[in-house]
Each structure stands twice: as C-alpha cells, then as structure tokens.
C-alpha cells in the first residue's frame, strides 16, 4: 500500500484566486482532479488534500492555459503567497542565510507529512533540493517550476530580489528552456535525479539584519537552543572583532542577566561559546586555507601567535602547525 501524503488546503487558495482571474472554470478543474469543489468557495472548511490530487490539478491548469512556464508565472503572480507564512517565521528567527536554510528544512519536516526540502553541503557552497515522493513525469514540469521558484524566493529574502542561483538542476526535460528564460545567469541542467538550486559559499554567511533574539525566544515550532544561536551569531564576527558580553547584550536587545540566565540553564557560558567559535574557526582556516598562523591568530582576536597556540593546544592537545599537518 502506498503512503498517502497530504498538503494543507490553505496553500491552494491563492492559486485558485489567481486561476479565477484567468477566467478558468476552477470548479470543473477541481472536480476532474478529484479535489473538493468547495475549495473554490470563500467558506471552505477542507483542511487537507492528497498531494497527488494537487499535482493533477496543477498539471490540468497548465494544459488549460497552454503555458509551458505556468509554474514560474504562478509563483510570480501570487508572490509566494503559499509559502510566505513559513518563510516569514524562519526569517524572523534566523541569524543568516545558512541558519535560515537549516531552519527551513527542519520546520518543513514538522509541518509536512513528508520532508519537503533537504541540504547537501559542498566545498564551495550548498545545494537546497526538493525532497518529495515520486511524481509522475507528465505532471512534473509545473511542479518543479513551483518548487524552484519557491526555493529561489526564500533565498531572495536574504540576498535581494535580483539574486539567481549558481546552478539549477531539474528532473524533467526542459524542452522549451523555460528555466533559462527566467534565470539566465544560472547554469541549468535537466534530466537529473533531484530538483535543486546551488548557493555559493560566499552568500551563506549573509547576516539577517531583521533578526533579534527576542523573536527567537518567543513560542515557535522551531526548537533551537539559545546557546546554538549565540554560537552562530559570534561566528559572523571572525575578523571583525568579537563583541564582549556587554556589547552582545546591546546587539541582541537582551539584558546581561537574561543572557547569563539562559546560558546557565544550558550548562554553558559566554566564554565557553566564544572559545568554541574561535577553535572551530581556527580548524577551518588551518585546513581550508593557506593563511599564516599569525594571520589566523589576528583573525580570532588573539594578541599574538603564541597566545593563539596555547589556546589551541589546550583544546586539541596539539599546536596549530601540527593540526594542519595531519589534516
């Protein structure tokens, strides 16, 4: 027996509103795809529908409009309305794009009956890909377009409306090159095993200036430790000068006492987190760059290379030079 995957019917409402403007017989299309006709009414009480019925509905709409770019046009016209509540929640509570991507994957796994997104770390960046159940080939093109447009829309929350991914992969054969037309600066490869976009490493640390820890502390479906958030925040200050805990208090809008109390609750301290950030950053610099030891020590706010060496040896049991040699 196949597992029945569900989708929140609320995500269909902006699509139906758009289709009505296109003068389509929405009720007929709903009926033919097996969806409740009452979805077309304002007082609809249907909570969820089967994914395969949603796919069939989207495919039939594309055929009726005879638009090979239907998926991209749909997301553009409804302005990501089906995903906006989810995107807003993540963006309010993420420190950076990388942080937001991980939170998005985690949140979607909680609110969907199957994992909607996944991440694949690469040396020069990261793939954000759709992770879904198998989709029939004839309904795949518009659904992939919707998925790609939504993923790019999420990243644009952080990088601006003109950003385009370095690369895009599609499962279907894009015979009319619709993806290239919408994203001319991206390397598009079709007939692949996954639907995804590639985000360069240079963008992942982009700080979300809308973030405040006050947003994070409130109730949320995303379960994240306070200390993890501080770790990610401090990671952005390598080379810029790490803030003192007093300065951190000003930055995040919390009192010194509030910060210390939450850290004690998680059995850690500001110094412990800062030392971990410095050590992890040092390991990354030693193994992934050719920077001199003295340059790395300056990057991490140590007074000199000797001070850096002592701190590094205290945690790793070896000098930075020895660590680099064996990694």
TrEMBL record:
PROSITE patterns assigned to the protein according to its UniProt record, in alphabetical order: HTH_ARAC_FAMILY_2 (PS01124)
Annotated HTH araC/xylS-type domain residues: 228-326
Record keywords, A-Z: DNA-binding, Transcription, Transcription regulation
InterPro entries: Homeodomain-like_sf (IPR009057), HTH_AraC (IPR018060), Tscrpt_reg_AraC-type_HTH (IPR020449)
Domain of life: Bacteria
PANTHER family in the record: HTH-TYPE TRANSCRIPTIONAL REGULATOR GADX
Protein name listed in UniProt: Helix-turn-helix transcriptional regulator
Organism: Thalassotalea psychrophila
């Amino acid at each position: 027996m196949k597992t029945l995957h569900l989708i929140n019917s609320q995500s269909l409402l902006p699509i139906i509103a758009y289709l009505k403007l296109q003068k389509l017989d929405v009720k007929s299309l709903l009926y033919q795809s097996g969806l409740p006709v009452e979805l077309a009414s304002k007082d609809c009480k249907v909570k969820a529908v089967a994914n395969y019925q949603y796919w069939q509905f989207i495919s039939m709409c594309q055929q009726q409009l005879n638009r090979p770019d239907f998926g991209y046009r749909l997301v553009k016209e409804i302005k990501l309305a089906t995903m906006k509540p989810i995107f807003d929640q993540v963006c309010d509570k993420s420190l950076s794009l990388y942080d937001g991507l991980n939170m998005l994957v985690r949140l979607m796994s909680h609110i969907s009956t199957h994992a909607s997104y996944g991440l694949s770390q690469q040396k020069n960046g990261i793939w954000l890909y759709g992770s879904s159940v198998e989709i029939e080939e004839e309904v795949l093109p518009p659904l992939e377009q919707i998925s790609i447009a939504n993923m790019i829309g999420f990243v644009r929350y952080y990088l601006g409306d003109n950003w385009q991914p370095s690369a895009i992969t599609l499962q279907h054969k894009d015979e009319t090159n619709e993806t290239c037309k919408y994203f001319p600066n991206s390397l598009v490869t079709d007939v692949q095993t996954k639907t995804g976009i590639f985000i360069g490493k240079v963008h992942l640390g982009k700080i979300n200036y809308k973030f405040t820890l006050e947003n994070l502390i409130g109730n949320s479906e995303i379960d994240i430790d306070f200390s993890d958030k501080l770790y990610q925040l401090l990671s952005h200050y390598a080379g810029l000068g790490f803030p003192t805990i007093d300065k951190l208090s000003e930055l995040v809008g919390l009192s010194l006492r509030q910060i210390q109390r939450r850290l004690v609750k998680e059995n850690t301290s500001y110094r412990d987190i800062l030392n971990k950030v410095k050590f992890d950053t040092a390991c990354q610099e030693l193994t992934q760059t050719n920077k001199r030891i003295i340059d790395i020590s300056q990057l991490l706010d140590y007074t000199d290379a000797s001070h850096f060496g002592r701190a590094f040896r205290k945690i790793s049991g070896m000098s930075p030079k020895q660590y680099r040699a064996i990694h």
